[in-house]
Amino acid sequence: MSRDYRGASAIVGLGLAGMGAAPGFSAMELLGQAAVAAVADAGLRMSDIDSVFAATSSHAFPTMSVTEYLGLRPRFFDGTNVGGSSFELHLLQATMALEAGLCDTALICYGSNQRTAGGKLVSMSEPQWHETPYHPRHPITAYGLAASRHMAQYGTTRDDLADVALAARGWANLNPDAFARGPLTRDEVLSARMVSDPLSKADCCLVTDGAAAIVLTRADRARDLHAKPVYFMGAGAANYHRSIVQMPDLTTTAAVDSGPRALAMAGVGLDDLDLVMLYDAFTINTILFLEDLGFCPKGEGGRFVQGGHIAPGGGLAVNTNGGGLSCVHPGMYGLFLIAEAMTQIRGAAGERQVADCHLALCHGNGGTLSSQCTAILGSEAAL
Question: Where in the numbering of this chain does the Thiolase C-terminal domain appear (predicted)?
């Protein structure tokens, strides 16, 4: 029987840096800025950090690089990299390490200068030997295949995909830190330049700089700190393939398993959630994850997002920061899901604040719909 980690740890510090474009800074410098801000937010000192969890697309040995740059001497560290979902997994790993007494204060961090360093998409999902002869464009070719199959099998339309992009922009327009703000019409989305049919430029995430860091400690210690804690409630992960051609079903991701595992550990149901943060690297992701996590039946995701259902004022608050589509997407986005959930649970989201936000689901995606990691966060009232 698995151990119950519900409420065992709490996030007590959050830092962001270089959101959008940060010319002149390296990926590690941005990560360092976010880490310093997160430690200060927790009311701690850098010397209090005794464990490091990191994954980046620019450092082969991320925890070594972070430790050196920040001058840390961690007792425990883990650089597990399963793509953009790494940080939801790190939440679970850090909680386990804290509960085991292997450390007292954990730093989870990420940084990228992807936009200003080159302006091109950095993908950890390089072509595999069985894909290379077909000259795919990674990772968008894989997501285009999933979108095409979903359309053919369930009747999903480009209009449905547009609803996802428009909802993200609607939330971004309420977020002063979002990189892409301003009017966006359905016609503009549908007429955008095609990149990998049926996904256009408007269906693709941003390419930005950005860094994020959070600090975790055990729940009993969190109550003694001045920062408002956000509690770890549960997490689950699942992964069955790396290459898209090995995905068992292009319309169903491993979120069908990671989601229930996280909810079971948290002891909550979908109806209990106040906020849903989904890794929207492409518009099809949001539709797939809404289905696979159980918010609607398989094949109904396109209809579920129609009519502004996930936009501001809709029936379900999804990606309230503007998501990877309109807020920020510096290569690996999973930690920014957690950052927004934490901001909302703290009641610090300003104009976009979700009323009475106590429980949030964060779902990370890595590779080409490969690694799926789900985490549930909650306020003290949710414990």
Answer: 236-378
- Cis peptide leading into 198, omega within 30 of 0? yes
Structure confidence at residue 123 (pLDDT): 52
Q: What is the pLDDT of residues 215-253, one digit of tens each?
A: 999 999 998 998 899 999 999 999 999 889 899 999 999
Domain locations along the chain: 9-118+209-229, 138-199+235-382
Residue with tokens 């040995």: 61
Fold observed for domain 138-199+235-382: Peroxisomal Thiolase; Chain A, domain 1 (3.40.47)
pLDDT attached to residue 130: 66
Question: Which residues of the chain fall short of a pLDDT of 50?
Answer: 1, 121-122
**CATH code for the structural domain at 9-118+209-229:** 3.40.47.10
Residue 14, both tokens: 């959050």
User: What are the counts of helices (DSSP H) followed by strands (DSSP E) for the chain?
Assistant: 13, 11
356 to each of 58, 339, 349, 379, 381, how far by Cα in Å?
38, 17, 12, 10, 10
Q: Which residue has the tokens 């989305």?
A: 189
Q: How many residues belong to the chain? A: 383
**Nearest residue to 341 via CA among 327, 321, 364, 355:** 321
Name the 3-class secondary structure at 362: strand
Q: How far apart are CA 241 and CA 366, in angstroms?
A: 11
Going by C-alpha positions, the residue among 83, 54, 82 that lies closest to residue 68 is 54
- What's the whole-model pTM score? 0.96
Render the burial of 276-290: b for 16+ CB within 10 Å, e for the rest: bbbbbbbbbbbbbbb
What pLDDT does 122 receive? 46
10 Å CB burial of residue 188 (0-12, 13-18, 19+) is middle
